[in-house]
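Next comes the chain:
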Amino acid sequence: METKETLLKKLKLAEQQEPVDAKYPTGIIIDTKGPQGNVFYLFGVANRLVQELALSAEEKAQFNQERDAQTSYKGHMDLMRKWFGIIFIGAEE
């Protein structure tokens, strides 16, 4: 369980990092220090968003190509910021 102060700190960090040029801004915040920080969880979020946002076949192919080209955790985070405006907190703490 987190304290009010901890949650307010995380919210402030998220507000500072909010991307403004994402293709599909979702406003989703992921705390990388918790269980949501697992790369497989990130894959699941991305796959769900691709389906929920009803990306065109061309966009799906482009996203999948970019996703498959990533070789690092940071690369996957950057891709999710670019496409879905995901805000990651926890890594900078």
In short: Helices lie at 4-17, 39-52, 57-69, 73-84. The chain has a mean pLDDT of 86. Residues 32 and 90 are 5 Å apart (CA to CA).
